[in-house]
Amino acid sequence: MLDTYLKECLYFTANRLGRVLTKMAEDEFASCGLAPNGAFLLMAVYEQEGITQKKLGEMLHLQPSTVTRLIEKMIGRSLIYNQVEGRLSRIYSTDKGKALQPQIQQCWDTLRDRYGAILGIEDGDRLTLELYKASDRLEGKIQE
Question: Sorted alphabetically, which SMART domains does this protein's record hold (predicted)?
Fold first, then answer.
């Protein structure tokens, strides 16, 4: 009976999937010395130098306190710096942070290839998109 409940529970299966993917991502991003969230934060900064801390949190779907801790850690490693403009904190990558860009991209590509080899690239892409849409709906961003 419990086995059926677990298989039919979105909460349980989503958390299980999250743990499996977190382990895979941590393994891949370890080669560039970053946690996955740190790597994705840097990728967001590369794309939009001077991004606000608030926008980073929205893009990465992280709570403000989590973003603050992550930024502080990345500043401590001299990978990014912040510039305060009034009430806004803008984030920029340092030369040291920019130097990691090719390695981060390789880690991301390797991670995608790794789960694609197991799930199939098309199925992995489809699952990713469906999970993203489901997350948006559950957060109330999209009404169907």
Answer: HTH_MARR
Q: How sure is the predictor about 6, in pLDDT bands with cuts at 50, 70 and 90?
A: confident
Q: Give, as one character, the DSSP assignment of residue 68.
A: H
DSSP string, 88-138: EEEEEE-HHHHHTHHHHHHHHHHHHHHHHHHH-HHHHHHHHHHHHHHHHHH
- Distance between the two ends of the chain, CA-based, in angstroms? 33
Dihedral sign of CA atoms 41, 43, 49, 54 in order = negative
Give the domain 18-138 fold.
Arc Repressor Mutant, subunit A (1.10.10)
What interhelical angle do 53-60 and 36-47 show, nearest 10? 120
The residues with which 88 forms a beta bridge, in sequence order, are 85
**pLDDT tens readout for residues 73-112:** 999 999 999 999 888 889 999 999 999 999 999 999 999 9
What gap in Å lies between CA 78 and CA 109, rounded to an integer?
A: 25
Classified as helix, coil or strand, 8 is helix
